[in-house]
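#struct-pred
JK: can someone run the complex with NAP? inputs below
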Amino acid sequence: MQKKINSWLITQIDKGTQTDYLELDSSEFLSNEIIIEVKNSALNYKDALAITGMAPIIRKFPLIPGIDLSGVVIQSKNKKFSEGDRVFTTGWGLGELQHGGLSSHASTDTDILIKLPNKYTHSYIMGLGTAGLTAMLAVLALHENSIKPDAGKVLVTGSSGSVGGIATKLLLKLGYEVVALTSRPEYNRDYLKSFGNIEVLDTNDFLGNPRMLSKERWAAAIDVVGGKVLENIITETKRSGVIFVCGQVLGLNLATNLAPFILRGVRLIGIDSAFCSHERRSRAWDMIFDLLDVKDVNNLSEIIDIKDVYERSKLIVNGKNRRRIITNNSN
Ligand SMILES: NC(=O)c1ccc[n+]([C@@H]2O[C@H](COP(=O)([O-])OP(=O)(O)OC[C@H]3O[C@@H](n4cnc5c(N)ncnc54)[C@H](OP(=O)(O)O)[C@@H]3O)[C@@H](O)[C@H]2O)c1
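RT: done, structure tokens with the ligand placed:
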């Protein structure tokens, strides 16, 4: 095992944080059962918030950020994995409670690792990662809540981003009628229309103060934006419709009223991918592998050098990014 690793590291300074790309001593940062040479990681919204210090994501300092990682086992103290095994993981507090994947090497417990099927590359799985798992869990929940493709329009917010983009693509593959909401319709319309037959609407039209109940428009919605956008969606959801709440780009607060819930039976269901059970993950991964091939994932993602993570994080938190961002962690 080499003595030095190259990693992004977030440290606490005064009341804020500082993020640097550094050479670190492996003995200080690789102390769990399995050591992995990370081939690819990804830049999630939460990672970008942590890296830019825009929100208090990190619970323990100093910390290597990165919710997702995929790589090759180079040392194992557990017989479940051997040197040379190709593995990946998403969530489980990586980059938040424990060191994450934005590094040349990572060390994790055995029970959060999944063997990467031989036919998939590290970049394919990281093109999905936490975002893909979240989108698939939302679509799975849609199905479990009896929202069939003939139920009507399904609204997806933040549709040019990672969770929204993958959810849009999954729904189209399953035959749903999708309406994609984007805050930059001029920039994103052609990109979103390339996904298939969808309607594209402007997020800015969902920022006004909602009425108690509005005209019924959506059989379901997959929302990553929250805030005023979600407040408006709730009042426009059809009788017995369901909204799957995945993210909070506009913040955690929600001001709504009970009429949509008690007069229309609207349901609001939260999606958590980070600590979702092994059984449900496994089911979701099997479904996503069936639905999205390498070409789909390539269209939905972009690969950047790990050294460009800070600059890209600034674009993400300012709503100026498009597609899922995969990092190339090899030196
Ligand atoms: N529940 C979970 O387990 C889970 C898992 C992954 C992510 N998340 C959460 O889901 C959210 C999205 O994550 P992501 O990885 O998809 O991020 P992302 O790739 O950066 O996409 C977010 C999208 O939101 C839209 N957006 C950004 N700023 C906006 C603003 N000011 N107003 C309106 N729309 C804005 C943009 O899409 P348009 O340009 O198309 O508007 C952007 O592409 C985050 O809050 C993240 O923490 C939750």
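RT: quick notes.
The two ends are 16 Å apart (CA to CA).
The chain has a mean pLDDT of 97.
JK: thanks, will look after standup
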